[in-house]
């Protein structure tokens, strides 16, 4: 993937569509996690529409790249992206969090076989991604594995066991991203367990570590391109983001980690600020 050849304006339009869908499905459900969904939208958009090798017409193509949303509570951004990519219908999105729906409040592979792993118990996605990357190498497949982690999730001990192991087995086909919006469920990450210096910790664990602005498309695309060139160790992209990105009254607000706007004027304002629904 040549970052210079990517139509960034089209990607930005795509991300706006995904953010609108996130708001629409969450307000229809009346519950969920908007903040971390909106903060990750630009990264997930780049992955699905510019970086990853995948075939919506053949969802289980063996050599597809794999994506694990380790911070499973942000699943609205994944479901919206799957709809925009053509994997599921848009009508299905309004069933989010309903009994019997394949779109549960956290990705559930038993309900939606399109997701590579069931997540929600924080800390497990990186380990599962290592397993997928090892399996791809054993098959001599060109498949790459991408995992999106939350920053609060990096307080989990299992993350650091996985951090030690992936470089040990030289997993160059593994790329993880930390959505570093600096807020978690009930306080800032710094207040709960300070992660800094986060990038240096991953470097100390021998990861190819890149720091970027997680809303700057040129930096996002360049980071993924750089990661693909490193063959002898995994890559960690520490992406600084804004929780609730795109909706001014949600940005950097702890409240919107796990609550949704419920007043019609709030919903209308969110959609207006994100922008009109335009085809990418």
Commentary on this structure:
The two termini are 19 Å apart. This protein has helices spanning 8-29, 34-51, 75-85, 125-138, 157-168, 189-193, 198-204, 217-229, 264-274; strands spanning 66-69, 145-150, 174-180, 208-213, 235-240. The protein has nine helices and five strands, in the order H-H-E-H-H-E-H-E-H-H-E-H-E-H. It is α/β, with parallel strands linked by helices and 280 residues long. A five-stranded parallel beta sheet has the order 1-2-3-5-4, sandwiched between helices. Strand 4, helix 8 (217-229) and strand 5 form a beta-alpha-beta unit. The longest helix is centred in the N-terminal third of the chain and has 22 residues, at 8-29. The protein is globular. Helices cover 40% and strands 10% of the residues.
List keywords for this structure.
280 residues; alpha/beta; five-stranded parallel beta sheet
Q: Approximately how much helix is present in the residues?
A: 40-55%
Strand content: 5-15%
Order of helices and strands: HHEHHEHEHHEHEH
- Poorly predicted parts: none
Cα distance, first to last residue?
19 Å
Shape: globular
Strand order, sheet with most strands: 1-2-3-5-4
- What is the structural class? alpha/beta
Number of strands: 5
Mean pLDDT across all residues, rounded? Answer: 95
What can be said about the biggest beta sheet? 5 strands, parallel
How many helices in DSSP terms?
Answer: 9
Rg on CA atoms, Å:
17 Å
Give a short synopsis of this structure:
The protein is an alpha/beta fold and 280 residues long. The chain has 9 helices and 5 strands; from the N terminus they run ααβααβαβααβαβα.
């Amino acid at each position: 993937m040549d970052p210079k050849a990517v139509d960034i304006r089209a990607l930005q339009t795509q991300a706006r569509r995904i953010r609108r869908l996130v708001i629409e499905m969450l307000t229809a459900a009346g519950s969920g996690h908007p903040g971390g969904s909106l903060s990750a939208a630009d990264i997930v958009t780049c992955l699905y529409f510019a970086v990853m090798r995948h075939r919506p017409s053949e969802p289980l193509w063996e050599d597809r790249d794999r994506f694990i949303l380790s911070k499973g509570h942000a699943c609205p951004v994944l479901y919206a992206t799957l709809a925009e990519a053509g994997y599921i219908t848009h009508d299905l999105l309004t069933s989010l969090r309903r009994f019997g729906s394949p779109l549960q409040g956290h990705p559930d592979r038993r309900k939606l076989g399109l997701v590579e792993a069931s997540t929600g118990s924080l800390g497990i996605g990186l380990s599962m991604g290592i397993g997928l990357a090892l399996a791809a190498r054993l098959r001599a497949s060109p498949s790459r594995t991408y995992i999106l982690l939350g920053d609060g999730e990096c307080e989990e001990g299992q993350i650091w066991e996985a951090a030690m192991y992936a470089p040990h087995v030289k997993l160059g086909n593994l790329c993880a991203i930390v959505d570093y919006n600096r807020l978690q469920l009930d306080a800032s990450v710094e207040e709960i367990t300070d992660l800094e210096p986060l990038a240096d910790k991953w470097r100390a664990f021998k990861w190819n570590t890149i720091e970027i602005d997680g809303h700057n498309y040129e930096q996002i695309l360049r980071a993924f391109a750089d990661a693909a060139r490193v063959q002898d160790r995994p890559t960690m992209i520490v992406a600084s983001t804004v929780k609730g990105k795109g909706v001014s009254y949600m940005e950097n607000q702890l409240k919107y980690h796990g609550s949704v706007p419920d007043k019609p004027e709030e919903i209308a304002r969110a959609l207006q600020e994100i922008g009109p629904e335009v085809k990418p």
